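Lab notebook, design round three. We kept the backbone fixed and only want residue identities now. Task for the bench partner: fill in a sequence for the structure below.
Input structure tokens:
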């Protein structure tokens, strides 16, 4: 799954890349985006800032509401179930990425492995979005099994990468047609293994494997 991605382009650059308009509402963005952070998405023809993750409201042992948890990844086989159904049917988006990261290595010593497209500096991942009371507009990344892709050497799941010819179909097609686009990427990938610790002091991502519905 994906709990970290890199995106350093600004809203104007993303708008030009995806033939969209630059939406209103400024926000500060980090080059690395974690669950609960703000990232840019292309939705309804505009580039818009949204929180990465749908809020999942949990309750404590005594029934008290706890701080919402960002559910940032949506499994393809769950898109037509209750948590995701309406967003998948009505609010699909494109998530611009330069690369995404996965954790590799033994527990407690995991390092970052970055995956990207070797021939593109920016590409689109399938996403869904919705408004929320907790964080305003928020988005989630659609994930698929990585079997048949070079990404399988790193993780059993990967984001749904959309070729340029498929991006408009993802946004506007009926759900059944959009679902058919959710498949592992069959083209080449650039895989860069690093010695960077997965968990870093100032911006620690959640442990791998915790936010997928």
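Proposed sequence:
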């Amino acid at each position: 799954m994906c709990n970290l991605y890199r995106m350093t382009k600004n809203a104007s650059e993303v708008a030009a890349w995806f033939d969209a308009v630059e939406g209103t509402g400024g926000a500060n963005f980090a080059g690395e985006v974690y669950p609960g952070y703000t990232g840019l998405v292309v939705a309804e023809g505009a580039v818009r800032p949204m929180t990465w993750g749908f809020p999942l409201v949990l309750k404590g042992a005594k029934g008290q509401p706890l701080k919402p948890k960002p559910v940032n990844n949506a499994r393809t086989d769950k898109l037509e179930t209750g948590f995701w159904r309406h967003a998948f049917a009505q609010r699909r988006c494109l998530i611009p990425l330069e690369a995404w990261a996965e954790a590799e290595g033994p527990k407690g010593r995991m390092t970052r492995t970055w995956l990207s497209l070797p021939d593109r500096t920016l590409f689109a991942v399938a996403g869904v979005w919705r408004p929320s009371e907790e964080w305003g507009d928020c988005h989630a990344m659609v994930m698929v099994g990585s079997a048949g892709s070079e990404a399988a050497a790193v993780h059993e799941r990967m984001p749904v990468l959309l070729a340029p010819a498929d991006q408009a179909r993802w946004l506007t097609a009926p759900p059944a047609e959009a679902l058919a686009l959710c498949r592992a990427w069959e083209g080449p990938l650039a895989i860069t293994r690093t010695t960077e610790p997965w968990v870093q002091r100032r911006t620690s991502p959640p442990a791998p494997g915790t936010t997928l519905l």
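Keep this in mind before ordering anything: The two ends are 11 Å apart (CA to CA).
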